[in-house]
């Protein structure tokens, strides 16, 4: 379940964000701390006949402002957001891929549903116009399209892949990045994005029974709240640059956000099994992998499913490991919705920014904790705190469960506050 990379644990040196809270890391972080929601009425198509009509939407994003025209016709919005986020992440890391041997760079992304908007458009064309569809249909819809396009665009020919674990996938990409950097890979482009806001995709999501049909968007996604009714979907995500610590030092990089200190993953038992959910043991395994005890975690970024049952299971897992109200917990994803393949990656980006600035973003909307949720949920406003470590949790539909431990690094790359 665990993966130990020894003393040379990798560091995150660059962050790129394309999210409902902002295009770019700085804009996303300001909106998150200000509590400016990216949830809005779905306007890419008429959602009036659907029970879910709101979602986390990208605002001010125009792919043509960032990408060459040929890529626009070859790719889905999902891949376009990943390409734009990767450019920001590489620039943030001050990393020119041309300066790194091509077989020592890897790409690993999380994908939940692939290029559904592109796919729907071409299927509609086939139905309405006969046998004429884009030559890029099979490529753009394919769940590995973003990984492939990133690898091609940046000349990265090392170990590349895609992880399909729904919301948990973003953490899994970083866990596997540790394995890559422990071997011969110097740089890993990791993370994920998603773009699930088209009629075909929305119908598919409704089948899981977990989306909120609350008509008031301010009340639709309230994790850990007594009025929790499900979640809202969203589009976007984050791409992160992960480097081996030695490789990072060798190239004389200026900064790193934090160390990928611990990781674990597991699967929930099948429905009806007497075995408990995986989250508690996965949290403990991630802490053990990081060499930390519960008292050394300063904040937990929750998965925050938004349903009464799933929220209670997560709250119980957190209290079982840390104690009741013993560690601050937050879920800033209420501002964007659940981004599936991009959600956990965005949580990691937000957690790293929180470590950098010493502030815990709040959980917008949740006001009254549900019975049994005995956690110290940060609400109403951000909370300043001395932060050196963060735990990020993610659960994907079907039982995927992952946990990632991040440690703040000093400007010289050393880990801050080890074993307080």
From TrEMBL:
Q: Which PANTHER family match?
A: POLYKETIDE BETA-KETOACYL SYNTHASE 2-RELATED, POLYKETIDE SYNTHASE-RELATED
Q: Which GO terms describe its molecular function?
A: 3-oxoacyl-[acyl-carrier-protein] synthase activity
Q: Which Pfam families does the UniProt record give?
A: ketoacyl-synt (PF00109), Ketoacyl-synt_C (PF02801)
Write the record's keywords in alphabetical order, separated by commas: Acyltransferase, Transferase
**Record's family?**
Belongs to the thiolase-like superfamily. Beta-ketoacyl-ACP synthases family.
Report the protein name in the record: Beta-ketoacyl synthase
GO biological process terms, semicolon-separated: fatty acid biosynthetic process
Leader peptide range in chain numbering = none
Q: Which organism does this sequence originate in?
A: Amycolatopsis regifaucium
Where the record annotates domain Ketosynthase family 3 (KS3), the positions are 7-408
């Amino acid at each position: 379940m665990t993966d130990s990379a020894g003393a040379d644990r990798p560091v995150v040196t660059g962050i790129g964000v394309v999210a409902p809270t902002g295009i770019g890391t700085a804009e996303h972080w300001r909106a998150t701390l200000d509590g400016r929601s990216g949830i809005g009425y779905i306007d890419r198509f008429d959602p009036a006949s659907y029970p879910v009509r709101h979602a986390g939407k990208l605002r001010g994003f125009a792919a043509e402002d960032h990408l060459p025209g040929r890529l626009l016709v070859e790719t889905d919005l999902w891949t376009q957001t990943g390409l734009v986020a990767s450019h920001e992440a590489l620039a943030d890391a001050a990393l020119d891929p041309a300066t790194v041997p091509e077989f020592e760079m890897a790409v690993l992304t999380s994908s939940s549903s692939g290029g559904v908007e592109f796919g729907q458009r071409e299927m509609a064309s086939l139905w309405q116009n006969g046998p004429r569809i884009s030559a890029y249909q099979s490529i753009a819809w394919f769940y590995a399209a973003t990984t492939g396009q990133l690898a091609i665009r940046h000349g990265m020919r090392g170990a590349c892949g895609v992880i399909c674990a729904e919301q948990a996938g973003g953490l899994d990409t970083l866990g596997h990045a540790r394995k890559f950097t422990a071997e011969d890979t110097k740089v890993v482009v990791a993370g994920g994005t998603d773009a699930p806001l088209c009629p075909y995709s929305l119908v598919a999501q409704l089948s899981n029974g977990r989306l909120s049909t609350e008509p008031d968007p301010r009340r639709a996604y309230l994790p850990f709240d007594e009025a929790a009714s499900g979640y809202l979907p969203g589009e976007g995500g984050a791409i992160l640059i992960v480097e081996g610590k030695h490789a990072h030092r060798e190239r004389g990089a200026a900064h790193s956000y934090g160390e990928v200190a611990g990781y674990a993953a597991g699967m929930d038992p099948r429905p009806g099994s007497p075995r408990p959910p995986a989250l508690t043991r996965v949290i403990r395994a991630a802490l053990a992998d990081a060499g930390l005890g519960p008292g050394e975690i300063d904040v937990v970024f929750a998965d925050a499913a938004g349903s009464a049952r799933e929220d209670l299971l997560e709250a119980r897992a957190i209290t079982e490991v840390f104690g009741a109200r013993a560690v601050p917990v937050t879920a800033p994803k209420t501002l964007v919705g659940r981004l599936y393949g991009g959600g956990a990656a965005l949580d990691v980006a937000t957690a790293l920014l929180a470590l950098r600035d010493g502030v815990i973003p709040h959980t917008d909307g949740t006001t009254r904790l549900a019975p049994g949720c005995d956690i110290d949920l940060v609400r109403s406003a951000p909370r300043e705190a001395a932060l050196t470590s963060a735990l990020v949790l993610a659960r994907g539909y079907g039982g995927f469960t992952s946990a990632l431990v991040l440690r703040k690094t000093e400007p010289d790359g050393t880990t801050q506050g080890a074993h307080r």
